[in-house]
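queue> holo job accepted (zinc ion)
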Amino acid sequence: MTKEEIARKNKEYRYAHKRERSEYLQANKAEIAIVAHRYYQTHKAQYTEYRRTHKEDRARQNKEYRQSPKGKEARAAYIQTHKEELDNYYKEYRQTHKKEIAKYDKEYNRTHREELRRKGKEYYQTPKALEVRTEYNQTHKEEIAKRHKTYSETHKEELQRYRKEYSQTHKEELIKRRRFQYLKHKERLQLERVVLRRKILTHYGNGKLACVECGFDDIRALSLDHIGGNGATHRRELGGTDIYDWVEANNYPKGLQTLCMNCQWVKRVTNKEVVGGG
Ligand SMILES: [Zn+2]
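queue> job finished
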């Protein structure tokens, strides 16, 4: 039999008697440990030599095992059963190796800058991150304001320089952003305008958004009418002030009503303010 054949036979035998072997090892643990230790003591040099010459092999094997399903499972099981021990160990390690850890972190941050930045950005956009941020901002309002103030006071020149630089390197972006903000602002103003007009015209329509004369209810054709007919004078007095703003600011004074353009026209003709056609 060749050497290889013997090795293979041995392996097969071990595999076939796996259970017995395991039972035997378990039952004779203490004795085996003593024998093994003695053997190790007398063959130390050989072990050391083997480790030295097979360093890469062993590292590769270890890595393969760690990444294999079996290795991963074993690791997870170990972590589960040794949780407290590991926690204590890490805690102690962090306290006794502060300097090394700081150095390592610094180096890691330096060499993984892009990756970290990308990951941070990705995390920042997750709903979870937003939730955490909102929660923090709400519970630390004063602290944050104070920090901002202190920072802007102690970094005045730096901030000025940064702003200047930023506005020069981001010209187009800034123009776009300002334009967008302006449009958003405009849209909001228009919306507010519509809301105010609806509110006021409903009030002077006696609770309905409609003409008090004929009931016409298309807001585009509705406007405020001075019941006493002194509209032109009032409008002159207001100058540039919008009548709806004036009404809101003066707590909805009496003497106004909601009319449609038709009824307003008819009213003016009746009052001989204008010469009516027909
Ligand atoms: Zn009408």
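queue> Residues 171-203 form the longest helix (33 residues).
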